[in-house]
Amino acid sequence: MLSVLRIVAALLFIEHGTQKMFGFPAGAGPRNPYVLLSLSGLAGILESIGGLAILFGLFTRPIAFLLAGEMAVAYFKAHFPRSFYPTLNGGDAAILFCFFFLYLVFAGAGEWSVDALIDRSSRALERERL
Is the preceding peptide bond at 86 cis, omega within 30 degrees of 0? Predict the structure, then answer.
């Protein structure tokens, strides 16, 4: 179930990144063509590329650590100043993603991942050496 949770959350996270970078799915307002040169553009790149890595379970622990930090910064920079309460400041998703990625730092990617595949092959190579 860890792998299923990781895959579903990654797909949702990628959607946030593609919305910032490409305006897809369409958001509330027009997309700024210079968005890639802003903090929002950097967030879009991290969310899209980092989300893809999490989706496939590639370098999960370090990328999840980076993305948890990004979500913490996003919450305190963009949401918290609006209100103390996440339901009022729109920061619910940022908090959930932050703690989900923090969980992945400790839990890893699960069985259905490139990380697990690499681990299995390295263990098989080690057994062959012995």
Answer: no
- Per-residue tokens: 120: 């299995």
pLDDT digits (tens, 9 = 90+) for 56-107: 999 999 999 999 999 999 999 999 999 999 999 999 999 999 999 999 999 9
Q: Which residues contact 85 (CB under 8 A, 6 or more apart)?
A: none
Domain around 98:
2-129
pLDDT digits (tens, 9 = 90+) for 13-38: 999 999 888 888 886 555 666 677 78
Give me the number of domains the chain comprises: 1
Give the contacts of 35 (CB within 8 A, at least 6 positions apart).
20, 21, 41, 44
Q: What's the whole-model pTM score?
A: 0.90
AA identity, residue 1:
M
Residue closest to 104 by CA, chosen among 45, 63, 56, 49: 63
| Alpha-carbon gap, residue 22 to 37, rounded angstroms | 13
Tokens linked to 80: 């918290």
Question: What would the two tokens of residue 103 be?
Answer: 């969980």
